[in-house]
Specification:
With about 325 residues, the chain is an alpha/beta fold. The chain has 14 helices and seven strands. The protein has a seven-stranded mixed beta sheet.
């Protein structure tokens, strides 16, 4: 065999050997894809303690049924009530409807001051004493909820609700018309202003009359105009911060035979047209948030406060 033939055979043998080797691995294809990272779950929102209180067994089914008209969670949120506050609730009444919400809400970190009438005056209306006895019995019946409520009495003719500048908030629900009927509504708003710290809040819910309703008509119907209530507050030194329609009821025509007391929960006509008034529901109500100014003008009076309340109803 010559050299050329031997070289050719060597080349053929080398090529055959190469053809039997495995092809090089495709490193890109062999690399496994990175594992997908599971999304981190967002933290669950903190439970609002008001929800548990509203659902609590300490509240009767009858009281819970009124939540649809009184909107306690939304109303207290609008007023900015926080569990660390000192809150004055004005004349909660024998049923203490809002007290059974505010007391547990404020019990651990805040303070609820419930102010009601001093009945020692000989001319005090009889219902003052009846309401007070019901309120005291309610508070005494459940110490776990109400043992820290500060129950104070005040003179209805010269109201005073505690030490000056001592409260973070004052709240009053469906009461202003009573003071207007008694002729000293301005004294109450002055007492609210005095007990509040600078920057404190006054929250008012009241039956709302149609614009133009007079004070005399109010005494018959129980409805007050927004302008009148705003005038009382601003005359005392408050600034109107915001209005809310959370307690509005467009079904309320405000022309009922026994005024606002025709509607639930009073049902002044008893069974007469009861279904009609039940279908309307509770009254149309204004919900107003006022603020005691943080900075006072010279002489201790609130800056930019009108001198007198509005005179219209």
């Amino acid at each position: 065999m010559n050299i050329r033939t031997g070289l050719a055979l060597a080349i053929v043998a080398a090529l055959a050997a190469c053809s039997n080797e495995a092809p090089p691995a495709d490193t890109a294809a062999a690399t496994p894809p990175p594992a997908e990272t599971a999304p981190v779950a967002a933290p669950a929102p903190a439970a609002d303690p008001i929800d548990a209180i509203l659902a609590g067994t300490h509240r009767s089914d009858e009281n819970k049924a009124r939540d649809q008209y009184r909107h306690p969670k939304e109303t207290l949120a609008f007023f900015g009530i926080a569990p660390t506050m000192t809150v004055v609730e004005v004349t909660p009444g024998g049923g203490a409807w809002y007290t059974e919400i505010l007391a547990p809400y404020l019990r651990d970190a805040g303070k609820l001051v419930a102010v009601t009438w001093d009945t020692s005056a000989p001319d005090a209306p009889g219902y003052y004493a009846r309401n007070n006895e019901q309120l005291k019995a309610k508070l005494a019946a459940d110490a776990a909820l109400y043992d820290k409520v500060d129950l104070r009495l005040f003179d209805a003719k010269a109201p005073n609700f505690g030490d000056a500048n001592s409260a973070d908030a004052v709240v009053t629900f469906r009461n202003v018309h009573n003071w207007t009927m008694a002729g000293n509504d301005g004294d109450y708003f002055k007492a609210f202003f005095d007990v509040l710290k600078p920057g404190g809040v006054l929250g008012v819910v009241e039956h709302r009359a149609n614009p133009g309703t007079t004070v005399e008509q109010t005494k018959e119907s129980g409805y007050l105009t927004e302008d009148y209530v705003i005038g009382l507050a601003t005359a005392a030194g408050f600034v109107l911060e915001e209005k809310s329609e959370v307690n509005a009821n467009p079904k309320d025509t405000k022309d009922h035979p026994e005024g606002v007391w025709t509607l639930p929960p009073s049902y002044a006509l008893k069974d007469v047209d009861r279904e009609k008034y039940a279908a309307i529901g509770e009254s149309d109500r204004m919900t107003l948030r006022f603020r005691k100014p943080s900075e006072m003008a010279d002489g201790g009076e609130a800056a930019d406060a009108p001198a007198q309340p509005a005179t219209g109803g």
